[in-house]
């Protein structure tokens, strides 16, 4: 039920934005939408963001490679990521573990640095 409510909220925000309504997603410029919502789109990355020894899924890598470095940082620092028990210090290593040559190596994200 909890996931259904979150999905419904995301759909309402997306539809509202498409129709030009201000639906309260201010300050979400890094990701084009609220980083808290983007975390749900990256759900396939969950296991890899909890444990650095877990292989990153191809789906996760495909999604992460399309994320801008500022958005990645907003996601890593989001309350949603941390409330799900995901470790920001491990999550920031996912682009490297995906062998993304475009990863923002050395980019500072709060207390974390992209390896």
From TrEMBL:
Ranges where the Bifunctional inhibitor/plant lipid transfer protein/seed storage helical domain occurs: 31-104
Signal peptide bounds: 1-20
One of the GO biological process terms: systemic acquired resistance
Gene Ontology MF annotations: fatty acid binding
Membrane-spanning intervals of the chain: none
Record keywords, A-Z: Lipid-binding, Signal, Transport
Superkingdom classification of source: Eukaryota
Function: Plant non-specific lipid-transfer proteins transfer phospholipids as well as galactolipids across membranes. May play a role in wax or cutin deposition in the cell walls of expanding epidermal cells and certain secretory tissues.
Classification via PANTHER family: LIPID BINDING PROTEIN-RELATED, OS04G0415800 PROTEIN
Official protein name in the record: Putative bifunctional inhibitor/plant lipid transfer protein/seed storage helical
